[in-house]
Amino acid sequence: MKFGKRLKQQVQETLPDWRDKFLSYKELKKLVRLISSAPPFLNGSSEYGKSEAEFVRLLNSEIDKFNAFFMEQEEDFIIRHERIQKVIDTWGATASQPSEAEYKEQMGKIRKDIVNLHGEMVLLENYSNINYTGLAKILKKYDKRTGGLLRLAFIQKVLEEPFFITDLVSKLVKQCENMIDAVFPAEEEEKENEGRETITVAGKGILRNAIAALMTMKEIRRGSSTYSHFSLPPLNLTESDLIPSFQLNSPISVVR
């Protein structure tokens, strides 16, 4: 699948509030086509410099958009993660509960919160991946069609941008998966086979969208004939990796 179609599909599958935060790939592609089809001018001329400067300005504007959104989401995830941990410390399996009914109510809420948080963080990791890939591809098109040499220097800059650095989000994803295993052990599932509570995941199927995001990450990072040192490393996922581990262990079914 062409990258433009893959990006369009991913935008459609993500959360509604996120859809205008992705790379304006189609518009940038049109600009590259417009610049490359203009009357030829020498590399290094003033006209060439103006066109390249405008292209870089638009790319920087896109990066500013990515960074602002990514950091806002990252901060929100930290706050929600801390709030979940506090509830677990208060109501978890090792804590004292005033009543069984109240305990079950609180655990049902926290399971839903963990599922939603995990799904949104996976979506944000994919947001970083797909926007980086789009930038690399549009810069490759620009250099190829105009004879410019923007890609190397620009990508080196991108690698230091906040939206590209996902270490903290990846760490929080793992912690979410560990939370469900630690707080809700597998044997609890047998005790609650009857009367299971159903969680409706907020945001039109966050879990479903997170799985789609994982599949997109795997696809855009797979090795190909166009793979280069500008490409993200392959993401080796088994089929079971596409379903968050806590969903399998949780006694709560998730409506998609």
UniProtKB/TrEMBL annotation:
CDD domains linked: SPX_AtSPX1_like
Q: Please, one GO biological process term?
A: cellular response to phosphate starvation
Pfam families of this UniProt entry?
Answer: SPX
Cite the SPX domain residue spans from the record. Answer: 1-156
Output the InterPro entries linked to this UniProt entry: SPX_dom, SPX_prot
Indicate what this protein is called per its UniProt record. SPX DOMAIN-CONTAINING PROTEIN 3
Give the species.
Salix viminalis (Common osier)
